[in-house]
Amino acid sequence: MSRLATFLSGAAASAGIIAAVTLLTGAKAPPAKFEEIDVGRINVREPDGTLRMVISNRAQFPGAPWRGGETPRPDRKDVAGMLFVDDEGTENGGLIQRGSVDANGRASAGLSLTFDRFRQDQTMQLRHVENDGYVSTWLSMNDEANGAKFNIEDRKRRLKEIEAMSPEEAKAARAQMAEAGQLNTNRIRLGISYGRSSALSLNDARGRPRLMLLVTPEGEASIQFMDEHGKVAKTVALDAVAAGAK
Asked: What does the alpha-carbon distance between residue 179 and residue 185 come to, in Å, rounded to a whole number?
C-alpha cells in the first residue's frame, strides 16, 4: 500500500472514530489543526450555508457573489485573492492580485484592495498597477449610489441599454445617470502617477478635479485650482510664493 493510501485510510478511520464519539456523547468535535495546507480554494460559510468569504487561486476564482448566487466576472480570469461577502451573500470588497512576465520579458502586475458600499461597487480602493516598467500606485475614495434603491446590477442593465443608443442619446442618458448619482464617482485620489509625480486630487460630486497638490520627480511643488471643465484656472507654485515674500 502506498504512503498516500495509508495516510488516507488512517485519516478516514480517525474521522470515523471522532464522528462516532461525537454522535454518541453529543460532544463537540475538536477543531482540526494543520501545520501547513495546500489548497486551491476555501469557502467560508455561516452555519446556514451563507457564503461569507472566498480565498482562491486563479483557476478557481469565482464570479461576483450576489444575494446568495453568483454573477459572471470574466475580467477576473487572471487574478487570485480573497473576496468579502456580506450577510445576504453579496460581495462587499476583496483583495485580488496578479503578476506575470510575457514572452518578450515585459512584466505586468496589479493589486487591488477594495471595500464596497452595500450592493454597490467600491467606495475605497488601494491599487497598484505595473506595466513594462511603468508603475502607478494610489488610494481612491468614491461616491456610490444607495444600493438599496439602485444597485450595481441595476447600473449594469442601464449601461447595457445605453450601449444600443445613438451617441447623442447615450451621452444624455449617462449625464442623467450622473446627475442622479447612479455612477461611481471618484472624490479623492492620492498616489504616484506613471510619470512618477506624487499627487492629491480633490474632486467635486460629479468627479471633476477641482484642486490638486502636485510634486514632480524633480521636486517642483504646486497647488492647482481647476474650473468645472477640468482646466487649470490658477496655479500656486513654490517659486512664486518665494518671489512674493521677497
From this structure: 11
